[in-house]
Amino acid sequence: MTQTPSPIPLAELHCHIEGAAPTDLVRELAHRNGQDITGLINGENGYIWSDFDSFLSAYDRVASVFTRAEDYSNLAYAYASGLAAQGAIYSETFSSTDHAEQAGVEPMAYLNALADGIKRAEVDHGIVSRMIPTGVRHFGTQAINRAADIAIEAAKTNPLIAGFGIAGSEVAGSLLDANDAFARCAGAGLGLTAHAGEWTGPPTIRDAISLGVTRIGHGVRAAEDEALMAEIAAKGITLEVCPVSNVVLNAVDGLDAHPAKQLHNAGIKLTANSDDPPHFHTTLAKDVETMVHLLGGDETAMRAMLTRNALNAAFVDEPTRQKLLGKLETALASA
Ligand SMILES: [Zn+2]
Fold this sequence. Notes:
There is one protein chain. This protein is of the alpha/beta class and 335 residues long. The chain has helices at 23-33, 52-63, 69-86, 97-102, 107-125, 141-155, 179-187, 202-210, 226-235, 243-248, 260-265, 284-295, 299-313, 318-333, and strands at 10-12, 88-95, 128-136, 163-167, 191-196, 215-218, 238-241, 269-272. The chain has two domains: 23-65, no CATH class; 76-333, Metal-dependent hydrolases (TIM Barrel, Alpha-Beta Barrel). The chain contains 14 helices and eight strands. An eight-stranded parallel beta sheet has the order 1-2-3-4-5-6-7-8. Zinc ion is lined by residues 14, 16, 167, 195, 217, 275.
């Protein structure tokens, strides 16, 4: 696929690595494994599903073809390289040790393999990436605590592990069940983010804030509560907004009903992200374009703001952050 990279560098904070698997890699691995993937891939390199349940099942079918540690290295490499081709200079991906274990790959081998792919993409394409292991909310508190323990242990030797997050069903249990896990990860120096306010309303977003997060995955339903928007803005919490995902999954009632502009006007820092790109038939570039359309105003300024917000909220060491911000400013100076 040929594409013109964005003249303003892009940066992404919210993408699930298994959900980002390119269809050609999945086809190749399924063939190797002898797995039947009939009905999974459409003619446009996207995955086929029709409602939220069939999306989750397509997601699990895609994840199930990654059965060897080296497969994850190739996945991380393919995704980061594809982002670099779009003009991205930085990427953070969620990694689910639970999904890897279900596919038969031991958590540490999984995280090390992802790191290997990330490093190769940086050498070949200059894109810097970090990983955020996540607990899966509908797997329960014990699983979340275990995922946190693995993240803390892995981060001791794997500097690309920069944060901890929680994903999965927003209606399973309470986000507060992750309180211990988040406190321990914060103590270990990991950045914190939680999916909230995509399907459930302001109370879940308040729960996420009480966990000490500096970012919220989605968070778009904060727009229903003026006081909450003011609190998010005052605390400088960044929202990882995924506009195409919101529309495709019907989390919002069509693009015109997306509250991005309202959140922006309330002083909240927004970023644009692709979530599970081949499932939602999107790319980071398309999500950035969608977000710029929603926000209006000067296009270059809006693109720069989205990237700057992402880099400022990134779970990355300070020297690397400054280097990336410098790249953005250099590109802007010549734009
Ligand atoms: Zn997500």
